[in-house]
Amino acid sequence: MNLLISVDDLAASDDVRVFDCRFSLMDKTVGRSDYDISHIPGALHADLETDLSSAPGEAGRHPLPDKDTLVMKLRAWGINNDSTIVCYDQNAGAFAARLWWLLRWLGHEHVAVLDGGLDAWLTAGQATTAEVPAFPAGDILARPTLTRTVAASQVLNAGNRLLDAREAARFNGEVEPIDPVAGHIPGAQCATFTDNLSHGRFRPPADLKARFEAMGIGLTDPLVCYCGSGVTATHNILALLLAGYPEPALYPDSWSGWITDPSRPVATGS
Prior knowledge:
Layout: E1 4-5, H1 7-11, E2 16-20, H2 30-37, E3 43-45, H3 67-76, E4 84-88, H4 94-105, E5 111-114, H5 117-123, E6 161-164, H6 168-171, E7 189-190, E8 197-198, E9 201-202, H7 205-214, E10 223-226, H8 232-242, E11 249-250, H9 254-258
Parallel strand pairs: 1-5, 2-3, 2-4, 4-5, 6-7, 6-10, 10-11
Antiparallel strand pairs: 8-9
Helix pairs in contact: 4-8
């Protein structure tokens, strides 16, 4: 299955399971409330904090969920081993990419992100609904993972190329509206995830490849992606795959987990 799906292709698809992943760090109730008002027909809501993360702590603000717990949720949502899944959010795809990555983490290959999200769906004149669907219990199992992760102890391994998905002001330590320490992991490059987009949609693969090449990133570089809490980093992973790079690793704890240990080094500036 392709990594992205267009509105036209989703609208024409049969037997596709859709997840609405809208969320706001500034108002953690708005994603669910917006879903309750209207969403793509057939979509279920997957909440970043209650469904797609475990409790915050030493592993950061949005640690990966327990695999068994996530599998049980997916079964309750009616997901099977052969289900084709589409994830979307409002537009940029960062929260959708989190679920896309988690499903690949569980070894589920048939999953794509809706390019342009709900905004693109509405712009195309497609219908929405407030009806919440119900499905029979599914049988999905965790299978060999399609992704890679690194632990905090591996982040600074020699040769790793660290890509930080946060905006430049946070990366440089000029501002920090969320976490108690400002800055970035030493040696990282700022690779703001929104630069993967043009007018709310992913840039063409050739443009994405040119973006990463301009940063000096080679096809054989051991890439590690991180962000504030392991969410927007998955957007960079998706973009790198679209650009033809091998699967990068995710540091899921990301900046909010890194700074829980005061012995770990912190850098500021560009």
